[in-house]
Task: structure prediction
Amino acid sequence: MSVELTMKANYHTHTPRCNHATGSEREYIEQGLKRKLEILGFADHSPQVFDDYVSGFRMRPEQLEDYVMTLRQLREEYAGRIQILIGLEAEYYPKYFPRLLDLIRPFQLDYLILGQHFLGNECEGEPPCSKATEDESRLERYVKQTIEALESGAFSCFAHPDVLNFTGENRIYRKWYEKLCVRAKELDIPLELNMLGYVETRHYPNPAFFRIANEVGNDVILGCDAHAPGRVAVPSEIEGSLRFLKDCGIEHVLETLKLKMPAP
Result:
């Protein structure tokens, strides 16, 4: 299978509204065209409607309208050349998730992907999920919270599902992440191989996680997690990510997602 065919679509693309990405939407789209993508989905970090807290790595609620309208205009301009989808990468924060859904419903987005960067509700002072821990209770909480998110029916994909950086015993790692993989498979929600994590040699993607996913039989899809136009569907990064998955026993990679959104 050719590299171009394998990377038919990318659903994980950011914009500068998240405060840690560069480049215009048009630049991302033009790069997608150069790399022969058929589908380019934007999933910038979702706004959250907190009480008295401002998150520094996501767009603000008042930026959502401009995000959607900009991409709608570009979708019309590029129609017939590349399909532009409008989504968000969102956390599942139990206290605030209903507020998020109320905020986004009027915009009729195409999809959400789950990207759980914090436990609890973020504003409660928890360290990020990427902080290394040997505490089994944090891994347990992560798995239970993200399973609850997947069960909400709101998410089309689970981005960097192995982001909780558990450095304790392998049997504990397997015990909890296997529960997550099993439930994701039951709910028919694909797991993302995060190419940004792969390229930057972060603690994810973790071979141990994807070996579990292979044993469980999860669907897996590549996600560029592009924070700059030049990171959209880079052939060498695609090849390396596919090699990583093959080493974990995963031969088949999804080309596209079945998109879903929460019921009105």
About this structure: The chain is about 35% helix and 10% strand. The beta strands are 9-10, 39-45, 83-90, 111-114, 157-158, 191-194, 220-223. The longest helix spans residues 170-186. Residues 87 and 109 are 6 Å apart (CA to CA).
